[in-house]
Specification:
The protein is an alpha/beta fold. It folds into 3 domains: 61 residues, Electron transport complex subunit B, putative Fe-S cluster (3-methyladenine DNA Glycosylase II, Chain A, domain 3, Orthogonal Bundle), CATH 1.10.15; 252 residues, Dihydropteroate synthase-like (TIM Barrel, Alpha-Beta Barrel), CATH 3.20.20.20; 120 residues, Rossmann fold, CATH 3.40.50.11600. It is 38% helix and 17% strand. It is built from 16 helices and 18 strands. The chain has an 8-stranded parallel β-sheet with strand order 11-10-9-7-6-3-13-12. α14 packs across α15. The longest helix has 16 residues. The radius of gyration is 27 Å and the shape is flat. The termini are far apart.
């Protein structure tokens, strides 16, 4: 049962009797112990912020202050995937902390060369998106053959081919034992314990010191199994709502219900990350991608894709990157001068903001055109051009300061600078701020910039 704000307050320096000498000291960042207690109850503060909590109270408060979704870690050869520790349903309430782990299924019915080729393709896949390197997180080896020898050989082949974290998929404890025997030095995810096999799977997970997937077709069934497993000494668990929850509507309902119970109601028996298998919900590859998108957004911790298809993987990685970006800390690049296509002293100077998507939209258009230029990036606190202008973060003064402080005047032989067409209204003010410079108004959209430079520069 979660402690209320008043319950927590009674354990803090200001709530005990007699009060601690450091009661309401404000060192935690809040005006009173009561205010701090309310933030702790709302999962909006960390207990470590108070240095004066007694050991007994700390033990009680640590349990109460623990994140509603347990942190689960998979690792292999220095690489790791962490999911869980989420505290809110909507990222604007605070933020999401650990991105959904994206895995690709490797059935053990493939030949060894096919398994090796697939594992390497997944491990080598990387795309650059607004300055971030997006990758897949691991492989899920599936005992589809039902043969312990084939399953063990498939796990060994994947381990030899790459260093990605693993999910081992087999409900038969004998098969799972064979697969786990090939994972020395790795912390895989054991999938899955059911009402029929949970005792044997719990033993295997404990021996391997690995987290365990719990599979059932109802929320009540999942909660019942997790309580049994925790009592048996297995605390690192992942939930797999099966049956109707595989489909679009059932998946949305089950994942939302589980997440609400954990994050809003603090129901500990379901306070674990969720794993999904979108390929089990549809036979249509396009619909599989759509279902995976839904599950990343609502609220899967791990998603196992049925096949490796870059056309499907790329949008999923971009969606994940956008969802798990802190909304209070926009993705941004460092302000300064960015040379594009080896510019010379005669090359044009263009100014934009340091919002990553804006920067890369402009930079990519210039690079692909082959035209040289100096891209002058102003510090607009990670906002786009129009947003920053509306917020007063991208005005004539800021642009002029960027021109004066970056040293661009020493790199070019002319005194001309191109501003985005969306802020053409700044032209007059900027001429006053930059005497001797010619202010030119560029296009509104980055895609039109190459044509502008060829015809109007």
């Amino acid at each position: 049962m979660a402690l209320s704000g008043l319950d927590i307050y009674k354990l803090l320096p200001g709530g005990i009797k007699p009060p601690h000498p450091k009661a309401n000291c404000k060192e935690c960042g809040f005006p009173t112990c009561l205010a701090f207690a309310m933030k702790l109850a709302a999962k909006q503060a960390e207990l470590s912020a108070c240095a004066y909590v007694g050991d007994e109270a700390k033990a009680k408060l640590s349990a109460a202050a623990a994140p509603p979704v347990r942190l689960i870690t998979l690792s292999a050869d220095g690489r790791k995937v962490e999911v869980g520790n989420e505290t809110v349903l909507f990222r604007h309430e605070k933020t999401f902390f650990h991105p959904t782990g994206l895995f690709v299924r490797v059935p053990d019915t493939l030949t060894t060369p096919e398994i090796v080729a697939l594992a390497r393709a997944v491990a080598d896949y990387k795309v650059d998106y607004v300055g971030m390197a997006l990758r897949l997180d691991g492989l899920a080896v599936d005992a589809a053959s039902g043969d312990a020898g084939k399953f063990a050989a498939a796990v060994a082949a994947v381990r030899d081919a790459c260093t990605l974290p693993l999910v081992l998929v087999a409900e038969d404890p004998a098969l799972m034992a064979a697969g786990l025997a090939k994972t020395a030095g790795v912390t895989p995810l054991v999938c899955a314990a059911t009402a029929a096999n949970w005792e044997a799977m719990a033993k295997l997970a404990k021996e391997a010191k690995a987290p365990l997937v719990v599979r059932a077709e109802s929320v009540a069934g999942l909660a019942e199994l997790t309580e049994k497993l925790v009592a048996a000494g297995v605390e690192d668990l992942v939930l797999d709502p099966a049956g109707p929850a595989r489909k679009f509507g059932g998946s949305l309902a089950a994942l939302t219900q589980l997440s609400r119970l954990a994050r809003k109601k603090n129901v500990r028996p379901v306070g674990y990350p969720i794993i999904t298998f979108p390929y089990l919900g549809t036979t249509d590859p396009d619909l599989e991608g759509l279902l995976a998108e839904q599950q990343i957004a609502k609220y899967a911790g791990f998603v196992v894709l049925g096949n490796f298809d870059p056309a499907t993987v790329y949008p999923l990685l971009v969606l994940r990157a956008n969802l798990f970006t802190d909304p209070q800390k926009p993705i941004q690049v460092e302000p300064g001068i960015y040379p594009i296509n080896k510019p010379t002293a005669d090359s044009p100077v263009m100014v934009t903001t340091n919002f990553s998507i804006t920067y890369f939209a402009v930079a990519n258009e210039l690079e692909s055109s082959g035209l040289p230029g100096w891209l002058l990036v102003a510090d607009a606190e990670g906002m786009s051009v129009l947003t920053a202008w509306a917020a007063g973060k991208f005005d004539a003064e800021k642009i002029a300061k960027t021109v004066k402080t970056t040293g661009i005047a020493e790199k070019v032989s002319h005194r001309k600078v191109v501003i985005p067409g969306h802020v053409a209204v700044l032209m007059g003010e900027l001429e006053e701020e930059l005497p001797g410079w010619q202010i030119k108004v560029g296009p509104r959209e980055a895609v039109d910039l190459p044509r502008y430079l060829k015809t109007a520069w």
